[in-house]
């Protein structure tokens, strides 16, 4: 196991398979923490309101319950969520981060507890200054709690199976009428360019309209420069449709 | 240049879905064991997904599919290559009466070190106050401790009003949470290779030693014991348990005389560390209740002999519990 790049952890299984884990930067972790702080404040506020109503009956018991409840929520929030959601709190889930064992083994409950209790030191003196410095100094962006618990925080891009139907759905592809040109395109297109085009098509709905037009225009221009398809076939195609047809040929 | 992705995905998708389903089951019910056939199938699916990942990396640069497979392989890898014993569902009574005292005994040396540092602090605090009585506000930076012991005892014994009336529950909650924070902080300071833990324990000891000397020298030993023993008999050992956990963490970080990696050493102690600190937190709940509802009431309301007897009983029961409870359990 080694750090492949500054923000990636590369692991090799005993079977010889390599896989990478994209490490979460201290900045994204800080943002997740802000979301978590907001959640803790909200939960505490709700408990305070409920106990405030009960305070009419017995103020002392209501106060005591609030003090204990706030303590349990502030410490237990991270432990409970990271354990039940396999390394995610609400903040981490919102920012698509996940706590993992640093060797990608199963996250143990004791690891979750240790990394959360060490927040007492990481948060010192304020705003996670100690933890932030430790994260920036660490090769794997680990704060002190992560070092003690042997954990890392990774970016979790989601585990849904990729939807290839939108490319491979059997739609008519005019470029395939000229099979020799399609073969030439396969030969000349680099894997990197093919990958960029595929990503662009799969994520096209995530782009702003202007960025989408510009991206597909640039990609179409690149692929048009590789192979000259007859004008009567391509002139009716928008840049985006052209790139989709190219991707369907390449894949 | 590229494998036929459509055919590849269509052929492999059922296996990935099956692996995902198995993983979900394992993750949702960690206490359940897979049957041998299911285990073999799980391993086969893991190897198949690993091989698919290798193919994707070699023949196609498709990042979304690769990420999906990496995630799947990583999850399965974590399950298959994890060698620690699976965690059982928590049985609180069994955990408290067996797991906790067993962990305490297994890690006795850090506890003894924790106690030694505190005792050294006590001796230092007592000596310092003996040599320089003017240092009292520095050694005991609490306003209610800065008056003379005799004055305080007189005030407490002649008090006509219950100063905690209506606030006992709140006071108990404040004590519980504050003392638990101190115990956790003492443990967490173990990350400084134990230096922070030692300083925290020594400082606690200094205050305790100075207070003890002040009251004993002032001829108020019965009051001191009656005031401190009922809750201190549990509270002080709980802070020592925090120190034990801190030194345990420090020992694993430093790794003197061990050939294991830092990671392996930390993995080895992490469960005991968590057990000890949770045990300390639970004991501090009791200490908080006793301090608020019992320790703050003095003679003539509660005779000192009764308070001292109560404190000593707690101390003996705690010692027997930590030394013997769960010995017969596996």
Helix tally of chain B?
12
Mean pLDDT level of chain A: 87
Largest sheet geometry of chain B: none
Outline the low-pLDDT stretches of chain B.
none
Describe what this molecule looks like in 3D.
The complex is a heterodimer of chains A (251) and B (330). In chain A, 59% of the residues lie in helices and 10% in strands. Chain A is mainly alpha-helical. In chain A, strand 1 (2-5) and strand 2 form a beta hairpin. Chain B is mainly α and 330 residues long. Helix content of chain B is 76%, strand content 0%. Chain B is elongated and about 90 Å long. Chains A and B meet through strand 3, helix 2, helix 4, helix 7 and helix 10 of A and helix 1, helix 2, helix 3, helix 8 and helix 11 of B.
SSE diagram, text form:
The complex is a heterodimer of chains A (251) and B (330).
Chain A: E1 2-5, E2 8-12, E3 18-22, H1 26-54, H2 59-84, H3 90-94, E4 97-101, H4 109-117, H5 119-122, H6 129-137, H7 144-149, E5 151-155, H8 165-168, H9 179-188, H10 191-202, H11 209-226, H12 231-234, H13 239-250
Antiparallel strand pairs in A: 1-2, 2-3, 4-5
Helix pairs in contact in A: 1-2, 2-4, 10-13, 11-13
Chain B: H1 5-28, H2 36-59, H3 63-81, H4 92-106, H5 108-131, H6 136-139, H7 149-157, H8 168-188, H9 195-217, H10 221-254, H11 262-295, H12 304-324
Helix pairs in contact in B: 1-2, 1-3, 2-3, 4-11, 4-12, 5-9, 5-10, 8-9, 8-10, 8-11, 9-10, 10-11, 10-12
